């Protein structure tokens, strides 16, 4: 009965959004956003009820910031439903979301667009290719990682989601996109970001994927990497999501091919948290045991959202 009631509520919200009245859209999008947060089954229901078809026209219209923020929040959660990335990406969402990253939109709108874009790109090669080749996403995203003279990015949340989006682009689009990011100065930008108060996990994922696509970058990435912070992110902590630990694990594995980096990682206490992270990942196919440490069979990439 409760499940049927929630499904009915979601259906009603989607219908209300379809009317496209700005006041109704603001309230319905906010409610739909909140009912989906942390609830994949609710997102699946919303997707089946046609939420994508009513949210995308709202995002393509010129509306008040509050409406856009609520609609972007609802879309961010909706993208966790099976099949949503494919359907939403096929209907122009990549280009629309990248358009919201420009400075003529408020920071609050840009932050929510970044969160939605990170979910839209997560592990989805076609959406990532659209972002690179149709929407010029790499320079647009890189700007959110740049720090001010005071040493901080314009938005800590925005920086994390921009790094996640870039990590997914590099992982799924290939060496050419990775080289484009490098040519745009991404290494210096991330080096500065790692000295800020931004949480480092997403930046570690980006560096891991760059070193996976372009192994020769390891010699440049190693000196700029705060090794102790990599090990600290690997340690179990309630504030550290599993994917953050996997990002640190992938970066550590890729850097460990360099002798000096391996020595520093071991001195920083890598072994125990690394073994714990590997065991908790539930994927023994990615690693092999030798006499001294867990060693990855091949360079590692990580997908973030």
UniProtKB/TrEMBL annotation:
Residues 281-305 are annotated as: Disordered. InterPro entries: ARM-like, ARM-type_fold, Armadillo. This is Uncharacterized protein.
């Amino acid at each position: 009965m409760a499940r049927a009631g929630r499904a009915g509520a979601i259906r009603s919200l989607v219908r209300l959004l379809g009317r496209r009245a700005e006041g109704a859209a603001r309230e319905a999008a906010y409610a739909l956003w909140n009912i989906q947060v942390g609830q994949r089954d609710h997102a699946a229901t919303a997707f089946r009820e046609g939420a994508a078809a009513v949210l995308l026209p709202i995002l393509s219209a010129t509306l008040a910031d509050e409406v856009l923020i609520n609609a972007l929040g609802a879309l961010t959660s909706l993208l966790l439903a099976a099949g949503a990335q494919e359907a939403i990406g096929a209907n122009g969402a990549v280009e629309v979301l990248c358009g919201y990253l420009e400075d003529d939109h408020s920071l609050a709108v840009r932050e929510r667009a970044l969160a939605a874009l990170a979910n839209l790109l997560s592990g989805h090669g076609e959406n990532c290719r659209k972002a690179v080749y149709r929407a010029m996403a790499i320079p647009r995203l890189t700007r959110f990682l740049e720090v001010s003279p005071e040493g901080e990015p314009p938005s800590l949340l925005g920086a994390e989601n921009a790094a996640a989006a870039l990590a997914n682009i590099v992982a799924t689009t290939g060496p050419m996109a990775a080289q484009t990011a490098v040519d745009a100065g991404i290494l210096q930008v991330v080096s500065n970001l790692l000295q800020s108060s931004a949480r480092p996990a997403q930046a570690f994922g980006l560096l891991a994927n760059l070193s996976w696509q372009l192994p020769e970058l390891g010699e440049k990435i190693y000196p700029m990497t705060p090794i102790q912070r990599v090990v600290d992110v690997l340690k179990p902590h309630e504030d550290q999501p599993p994917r953050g630990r996997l990002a640190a694990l992938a970066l550590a594995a890729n850097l460990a091919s360099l002798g000096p980096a391996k020595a520093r990682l071991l001195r920083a206490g890598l072994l125990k948290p690394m073994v714990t992270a590997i065991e908790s990942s539930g994927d023994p196919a990615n690693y092999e045991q030798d006499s001294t440490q867990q060693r990855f069979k091949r360079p590692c990439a990580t997908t973030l959202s």
